[in-house]
Design brief:
The structure is a single chain. The protein has helices at residues 3-7, 12-22, 26-32, 38-49, 67-75, 88-94, 139-145, 161-166, 169-178, and strands at residues 57-61, 80-85, 108-111, 123-132, 149-160, 186-191, 203-210. It has 213 residues and is an alpha/beta fold. It has one domain (3-210): Vaccinia Virus protein VP39 (Rossmann fold, 3-Layer(aba) Sandwich). The protein has a seven-stranded mixed sheet, sandwiched between helices. Helix 7 (139-145) links the parallel strand 4 (123-132) and strand 5. Helix 4 packs parallel to helix 5. The radius of gyration is 16 Å and the shape is globular. It binds S-adenosylmethionine. S-adenosylmethionine (SAM) binds at residues 12, 15, 19, 38-39, 62-64, 67-68, 85-87, 90, 113-115, 129-131, 136.
C-alpha cells in the first residue's frame, strides 16, 4: 500500500474500504517501512504541554491500529484512552495492544464516522495523528469535534502541513478562537517520518489549544 493510495480517498466509504484492506499489514508496511515517527512525536508534545493533573481521559481521533495510544499509555500510565475510528478492522488491531501492566492500551474503542453524528461523550482531552490529512478529515470536522472535549479541556491535533494550507485550517481555527470557543492555538511543525524514509521532509502542524466555552 503506498501513500498516494491513502491520499486518494475521497469519502468515508473509501476510507472504510482502504483501511479494511490495510489493517493487518499497516504496522509493517506503513509504520515500520516509512519510519513513521509522528505518533511518538505527538504523544510527547501532549505529555510536555498538557497538564497532567487535570487530564484523566483522552480521545484518540482516527486511532487506527493504536500507535498514538501506545506511546501515550507509556508516558501517562493512568490516562484512560478511548479510540474513535471508522474502520472496524483497524480498531480490532488497536484492541490487541497492552500496557506494561497487561491492561489494554485503549479502555474503549468506538466505530464511528467522524463526519457524521458524533457519540454523546465528553473527554478531558483530544489527540490525533494522521487523520487530518489529504482525503480524510477537514477543518469543518475539526470544529464539530470540539464538543467532545469539556470546557477547559485540551487538544493536540496533528494536521498534515500541505492539507493545513490547502484546506484553510488556520482561518477556521482563528474564527473559532474569535468566537471565544477555543484559545489561540500554538503550532509546532514536526517531521512525520524519520530520516530513513523516502517521505522524509513531509511535515505536520501540531495544533495545541484549549476549549474555553
Ligand atoms: C493514516 S491512519 C492514522 C492512524 C493512526 N492515528 C496512526 O497515526 O497510525 C487514518 C485513520 O483515520 C481513520 N478515518 C478516516 N476517515 C475517517 C472518518 N470519517 N471517521 C473516523 N475515522 C476515519 C482511518 O480508518 C484510519 O484508521
Amino acid at each position: 500500500m503506498d501513500l498516494d493510495k491513502a491520499y486518494s480517498v475521497k469519502t468515508p466509504e473509501d476510507s472504510r474500504r482502504l483501511y479494511a484492506e490495510w489493517a493487518s499489514t499497516y504496522n509493517e508496511t506503513f509504520i515500520k517501512a516509512n519510519d513513521y515517527v509522528y505518533p511518538r512525536t505527538i504523544a510527547q508534545k501532549f505529555d510536555e504541554l498538557i497538564s497532567k493533573s487535570e487530564i484523566q481521559t483522552v480521545v484518540d481521533i482516527g486511532c487506527g491500529t493504536g500507535a498514538v495510544g501506545s506511546y501515550l499509555a507509556n508516558l501517562r500510565p493512568n490516562l484512560k484512552i478511548t479510540g474513535f475510528d471508522i474502520s472496524p478492522e483497524m480498531l480490532a488491531e488497536a484492541s490487541k495492544l497492552k500496557r506494561i501492566d497487561g491492561s489494554p492500551v485503549y479502555n474503549d474503542l468506538i466505530e464511528v464516522d467522524l463526519t457524521a453524528e458524533l457519540p454523546k461523550k465528553s473527554f478531558d482531552a483530544m489527540i490525533s495523528a494522521g487523520t487530518f490529512t489529504h482525503g480524510h478529515l477537514g477543518p469543518q470536522t475539526l470544529t464539530s469535534l470540539i464538543q467532545l472535549v469539556r470546557v477547559n479541556g485540551w487538544f493536540a491535533i496533528g494536521i498534515n502541513a500541505q492539507h493545513f494550507e490547502l484546506r484553510g485550517f488556520d482561518a477556521v481555527l482563528r474564527e473559532t478562537q474569535d468566537l471565544g470557543v477555543i484559545s489561540a492555538a500554538r503550532f509546532f511543525e514536526e517531521q512525520v517520518y524519520g530520516p530513513s524514509s523516502p517521505h522524509y521532509g513531509d511535515t505536520t502542524q501540531i495544533a495545541i489549544f484549549s476549549r474555553l466555552k
